[in-house]
C-alpha cells in the first residue's frame, strides 16, 4: 500500500516560516490534502488539492506538491498554529483508499 | 451549519460489539459519501471505512475488514459503524467525516472514544 512519510516534529520561532513535508512515491501526481489537529480536538482541513484553502483558513497556510514531496508552508507562524499536521491522499490503486501520513507536531518556540 | 455528532463509544470488553452512530445535520446527507477515521491514544489518524452516498459502495481498511460494518440511513441522516470482535488495538477516538468529490474530508465530528479493556 501507499506510504506517506512526515517528520515527527518541526520547530519554528513566532513570525518565521514553517515547512512541513510529506514524502511519497511520485506524490506529485496525486492530490494532497492537509489537516491541522490541536490537542483534544477533531482535525480541521487547512489545505486541499495540493494548494487550495477552505474558506476561513488564513492565507498564511499554503501548499505545494512536486516529484516525491508535498509541502505545507505556514508563513508568519503564530502561537495558535502549534498543532499536529497530517497529509492525506486517496490511493485508488489499492484497497487502502485513504492514506494519512504519520503526522508532524509543529512547535512554536 | 454542518454538524456531525458521534455517539456510542465507551468502555467495551475484548470481543465486544458496540455500534457507533453519527448524526448529521446542516447539509443534504444523502448526497455525500462518508467515512470513519480513528485515532489511537497519542497516535496518528487511521482511516477505517468509507461508504458512498447511496450505500452501494463500501470499502474497509485491512485492519477492520471482516469485523466492522459501515452503514447509513439516509432517511435518518445517520451513519453507523458496527464493531465486532473488538481488540485492545481498536481503542481510540472514532470520527465520522464528510467526504468531498476531491477525496478529502471537509467536516469532522468531535469523535467518540472507544476503550477496549477487561
What report would you give on this structure?
The complex is a heterodimer of chains A (109) and B (118). With 109 residues, chain A is mostly beta strands. Helices cover 0% and strands 43% of the residues of chain A. Chain A is built from no helices and nine strands. Chain A has strands at 9-12, 18-23, 33-37, 44-47, 61-66, 69-74, 83-90, 98-100, 104-108. In chain A, strands 1, 3, 4, 7, 8 and 9 form a six-stranded mixed sheet that branches. In chain A, strands 2-6-5 form a three-stranded antiparallel sheet, with no helix packed on it. The termini of chain A are far apart. Chain B is mainly beta and 118 residues long. Chain B contains no helices and eleven strands. Chain B has strands spanning 3-7, 10-12, 19-25, 33-39, 45-51, 58-60, 68-73, 78-83, 92-99, 105-108, 112-116. Chain B is globular, with a radius of gyration of 13 Å. The termini of chain B are far apart. The mean pLDDT of chain B is 97.
Amino acid at each position: 500500500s501507499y506510504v506517506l512519510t512526515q517528520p515527527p516534529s518541526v520547530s519554528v520561532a513566532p513570525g518565521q516560516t514553517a515547512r512541513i513535508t510529506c514524502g511519497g512515491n511520485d506524490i506529485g501526481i496525486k492530490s494532497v490534502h492537509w489537516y491541522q489537529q490541536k490537542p483534544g480536538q477533531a482535525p480541521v482541513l487547512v489545505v486541499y488539492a495540493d494548494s487550495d484553502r477552505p474558506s476561513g483558513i488564513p492565507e498564511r497556510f499554503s501548499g505545494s506538491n512536486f516529484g516525491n514531496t508535498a509541502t505545507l508552508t505556514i508563513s508568519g507562524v503564530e502561537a495558535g498554529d502549534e498543532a499536529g499536521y497530517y497529509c492525506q491522499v486517496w490511493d485508488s490503486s489499492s484497497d487502502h483508499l485513504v492514506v494519512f501520513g504519520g503526522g508532524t507536531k509543529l512547535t512554536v518556540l | 451549519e454542518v454538524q456531525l455528532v458521534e455517539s456510542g463509544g465507551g468502555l467495551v470488553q475484548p470481543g465486544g460489539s458496540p455500534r457507533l452512530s453519527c448524526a448529521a445535520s446542516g447539509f443534504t446527507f444523502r448526497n455525500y459519501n462518508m467515512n470513519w477515521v480513528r485515532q489511537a491514544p497519542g497516535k496518528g489518524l487511521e482511516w477505517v471505512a468509507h461508504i458512498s452516498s447511496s450505500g452501494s459502495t463500501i470499502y474497509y481498511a485491512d485492519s477492520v475488514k471482516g469485523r466492522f460494518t459501515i452503514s447509513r440511513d439516509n432517511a435518518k441522516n445517520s451513519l453507523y459503524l458496527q464493531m465486532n470482535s473488538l481488540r485492545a488495538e481498536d481503542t481510540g477516538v472514532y470520527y465520522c467525516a464528510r467526504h468531498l468529490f476531491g477525496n478529502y474530508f471537509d467536516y469532522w465530528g468531535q469523535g467518540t472514544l472507544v476503550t477496549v479493556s477487561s
